[in-house]
């Protein structure tokens, strides 16, 4: 199985069972996790836990479908669409790409994800008539 497919399968399991401990096994101890839209990053096992717990906390339920998985030497590319409900109950669908670097054992040493952040903004209320 490819490294990209292995990661995709682990993420789908996480989204289904929310077993963070099992999922974190895919990461190297000194992993770097980057989410550029927030201008921040997390490092190491504790950082990975914070990063993925924050991901889970965003949603009441979420499921990802992977449309393109590519492995090239120590790098993987995953293109995906995720659908579900935000913690507020609002439906969401958004797309993006994740880039992974791996060590010789196949553990993820760097994870960066880029996605459509507009899907997370609350839609503006629309007027339905006078007084609304």
Polypeptide structure, described:
The protein is of the alpha+beta class. It has a single domain, classed as Nuclear Transport Factor 2, Chain: A (Roll). Helix content is 26%, strand content 45%. It has three helices and six strands. The chain has helices spanning 3-17, 20-24, 44-57, and strands at residues 27-35, 40-43, 59-72, 75-86, 91-102, 108-115. Strands 2-1-6-5-4-3 form a six-stranded mixed beta sheet, with helices on one face. A hairpin with a 4-residue loop joins strand 1 (27-35) and strand 2. The chain is globular. It starts with a helix and ends in a 17-residue tail after the last strand. Residues 124-130 have low confidence and may be disordered.
In short:
The chain has 132 residues and is an alpha+beta fold. Helix content is 26%, strand content 45%. The protein has a 6-stranded mixed β-sheet with strand order 2-1-6-5-4-3, covered by helices on one side.
The DSSP helix count reads 3
Mean pLDDT across all amino acids: 91
N-to-C CA distance: 55 Å
How large is the share of residues in beta strands? 35-45%
Number of strands: 6
Give the low-pLDDT segments. Answer: 124-130
Q: Tell me the structural class.
A: alpha+beta
CATH architecture name: Roll
Shape: globular
Largest β sheet strand count, sense and barrel closure: 6 strands, mixed
Helical fraction equals: 25-40%
CATH topology: Nuclear Transport Factor 2, Chain: A
Strand order of the largest sheet: 2-1-6-5-4-3
CATH class: Alpha Beta
Number of separate domains: 1
Radius of gyration: 16 Å
Spell out the helices and strands N to C. HHEEHEEEE
């Amino acid at each position: 199985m490819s490294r990209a497919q292995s990661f995709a399968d682990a993420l789908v399991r996480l989204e289904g069972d929310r077993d963070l401990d099992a999922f974190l096994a895919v990461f190297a101890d000194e992993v770097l996790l980057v989410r550029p839209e927030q201008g921040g990053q997390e490092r190491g096992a504790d950082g990975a836990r914070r990063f993925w717990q924050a991901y889970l906390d965003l949603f009441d339920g979420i499921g990802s479908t992977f449309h393109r998985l590519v492995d090239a030497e120590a790098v993987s590319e995953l293109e995906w669409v995720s659908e579900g409900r935000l913690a507020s109950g609002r439906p969401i669908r958004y797309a993006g790409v994740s880039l992974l670097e791996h060590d010789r054992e196949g553990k993820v040493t760097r994870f960066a994800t880029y996605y459509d952040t507009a899907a997370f903004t609350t839609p503006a209320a629309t007027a339905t008539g006078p007084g609304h």
